[in-house]
Design a protein that fits this description.
By secondary structure, the chain is α+β, with helices and mostly antiparallel strands. Helix content is 57%, strand content 18%. Helix 2 packs antiparallel against helix 13. The two termini are 26 Å apart.
């Protein structure tokens, strides 16, 4: 019997029991749909973490003020006000693993341009902040050296601020009042989107750190060059752990922390390491979800084997008659194996459609980020075909080994 004849015979047998065939495929349909949906959800979570890493920048550490103790009572995180612009300069110059170190101070302020106003974040820093965050300019220019040293009234603005204050107009060379201080927009930042906590990173005005200190912040913190944090970018290929330890040792020296003391007036957070851990967790979760969904495919395969065994029993006389007329054992094996694989592939095809629909529903109604890839679809369909071959082989082999005389005597 040719392969095409075996396929036609298998198709006729499945059509003769259409309802039973559909119920048999149900396990495979659910399994394939579940695998595709779960992999898409897990891949979406991983993609979201990767996008956050891109938005944050690579090889980044964040140095924050630590806690202080008064009368034996610790006042909590970031209550110390010891970090200065000089600390950022020392980190950049004295630690060879560091590419740049940017001092950062921020506050919220009312922003006014003409008749429009908007409440946004104002950040004081240097051009190094753009390098640390891998944040290019969409238009305009960065700060000039004289502007950063002299406290010039210039600013870079994010996409959200530009849209709220200027609409579709070009914001370059426009004037914004920040706490009644007029600053000229010299650059428009490229869009970054939301960060890991859901905050809009484009809702931002960046001014030179000297401008922030002297014109916006003021007070003792401005006179002492206090900063809210220091963002550090480590050179590509350098060990983040070693760089972190070098920064820690340098700051302990600058803050005169006694050897062996456990309390430090600063905190170092390795942001890249945190996001990499999140990405690894997302990948493990994707594998676990896919494994759980794969169990449905195995259950569907057991269903196929069960139905095929029933089919062999029902068609014993037919098998005996075909063998008596010259059919070989491998012809019978091929026919029943094709029936099993056909059930699996049809179930897989229907499962792909349902899985794609479920993925779309999760992305649009639940608001989750999903990523449906062709490789996941191919893998699910291939696995369903493998299930058909694996669980269909035993019934097909049993049919092929029947003796014609015994089969014809079967009632």
């Amino acid at each position: 019997m040719s392969l095409w004849a075996a396929v036609r015979a298998a198709w006729r047998a499945l059509r003769a029991n259409a309802m039973r065939s559909l119920l048999t495929m149900l396990g495979v349909i659910i399994g394939v749909a579940a695998v595709i949906t779960m992999v898409a959800v897990g891949a979406g979570a991983t993609q979201r973490v990767q996008d956050q890493m891109k938005g944050l920048g690579s090889n980044i550490m964040l140095v924050l003020p630590g806690s202080v103790t008064q009368a034996g009572v610790r006042l909590g995180a970031q209550t110390s006000q010891g970090l200065t612009e000089d600390d950022a300069l020392a980190i950049a110059l004295e630690i060879p693993e560091v590419q740049v170190a940017s001092p950062v101070s921020r506050t919220s302020a009312q922003l006014v341009a003409g008749n429009a106003n908007w409440s946004g974040q104002v950040l004081g820093s240097t051009n190094d902040y753009l390098e640390v965050r891998d944040w290019p300019l969409e238009s305009g220019r960065a700060f000039e050296t004289t502007e950063m040293l002299g406290g010039a009234k210039v600013a870079l603005i994010g996409q959200t601020v530009a849209q709220q204050l200027f609409g579709d107009a070009d914001p370059i060379d426009q004037v914004i009042r920040v706490r009644r201080v007029p600053v000229t927009v010299v650059g428009l930042l490229a869009r970054k989107g939301q960060n890991a906590s859901g905050q809009d990173q484009d809702d931002l005005v960046v001014v030179p750190i000297s401008t922030f200190r002297n014109r916006i912040q003021g007070g003792a913190a401005g006179r002492l060059k206090r900063v809210g944090s220091i963002t550090v970018k480590v050179l590509e290929g350098q060990d983040m752990k070693a760089a972190e330890q070098s920064v820690r040792e340098l700051l302990r020296q600058r803050f005169r922390v006694a050897p062996g003391a456990t309390e430090e007036p600063f905190v170092i957070r390795n942001l890249t390491e945190i996001l990499q851990a999140q990405e690894a967790s997302s990948r493990v979760m994707t594998l676990l979800l896919a494994a759980v969904a794969g169990i449905s495919l195995l259950i569907g395969g057991i269903g196929i084997m069960n139905i095929m065994l029933v089919s062999v029993t029902e068609r014993t006389r037919e098998i005996g008659l075909r063998m008596a007329l010259g059919a070989r054992g491998r012809d019978v094996l091929t026919q029943f194996l094709i029936e099993a694989v056909t059930l699996s592939l049809l179930g897989g095809a229907i499962g792909v459609v349902l899985g794609a629909a479920a993925t779309w529903a999760v992305g649009n109604f639940a608001g989750w980020q999903v990523s449906l890839s062709a490789s996941a679809v191919v893998l699910a369909v291939a696995f369903s075909a493998a299930v058909g071959v694996f669980f269909g082989y035993y019934p097909a082999r049993r049919a092929a080994r029947l003796q014609p005389i015994e089969a014809l005597r079967h009632e």
